[in-house]
Amino acid sequence: MKTYAMTGGASGIGAAIKQNLLDAGNAVIVVDIANADIEADLSSAAGRNAAVAGICAQAPEGLDGFIACAGVASHVPDLGLIANVNYFGTTDLVAGLRDHLKKKQGSVVLVSSNSAPMATNPDYVDALLNNDRDALETQLEAMEGQTVYSGSKQAVARWMRRNTAEYAADGIRMNAIAPGYTETPMTAAVAESEEYGDAIRQFVASIPMGRAGAPEDMAKAVKFLLSDDASFFCGTVLFIDGGHDAMLRPDDF
Fold it and tell me: Looking at the whole model, is its pTM more than 0.70?
């Protein structure tokens, strides 16, 4: 039995990841805003610190892996919430758990998005990566939900890539998945919104494989990346999107 910790395990992709790992006989410590082993608000530094402390207390011998799955979608009006949960709620927890992961040479899987390459505000992404709170606040004033979301997911992938070698030196493999449109309660809320509904329906209709993703599609990929079968996967961003990224960016890889 292995011991994993994760954020965002209460619903959607996170719930599928959790169940997949539990079905394989593992222990899973879940952090979420409610209905979790550790209830914490990842939008605040205090909440992120509490989450790290809680995980370390429940797994004193170390972690075999950590999955950062908690996220907020583009329809949320509080743009700062999107940035804080999606980016800092990922990177701060990975950094805070580094020593605990090192104990067992655990693996890390972050959840980016196939919308990450679509980010259109490099100054916002740089503000996240540089932890420049003043610049971040300035950028958010002139942005809208989708660009905040896609930029936060690009920043997650770039942070992972920038830190891959340093973490690998500690025996910690870091990878990310980039889900395409996946049917979850979070995406349903976006699809039902007046602002994004039509665009989402068109987006789903354009998926080359002819269907939206399911949480289980993402969970199986995460389980693989955590496993010994993926022992040479390190610094990879794995697109799981029914061919959408290849269709939209055929010459970029």
Answer: yes
d(CA 116, CA 102) in angstroms, rounded, equals 28
How many separate domains does the chain show? Answer: 1
Does residue 211 form part of some domain?
A: no
CA 234/CA 3 separation, integer angstroms: 20
- Give the span between the Cα atoms of 81 and 89, in whole angstroms: 10
Per annotation, catalytic residue among 4, 124, 149, 196: 149
| Domain-located, residue 118 | yes
Sequence-distant contacts of 41-47: CB under 8 A, at least 24 apart: 42/7, 42/70, 42/84, 42/85, 42/88, 42/89, 42/93, 43/80, 43/81, 43/84, 43/85, 43/89, 44/84, 45/88, 45/92
Evaluate whether 114 touches 218 at the Cβ level (below 8 Å). Answer: no
For residue 236, give the CATH number of its domain.
3.40.50.720
167 is catalytic: no
Q: For residue 198, is it within any domain?
A: no
Q: Where are the beta strands (DSSP E) in the chain?
A: 3-7, 27-32, 38-39, 65-68, 107-111, 173-179, 237-240
Amino acid, single-letter form, for residue 239: F
Express each pLDDT in 36-84 by its tens digit.
Answer: 999 999 999 999 999 999 999 999 999 999 999 999 988 899 999 999 9
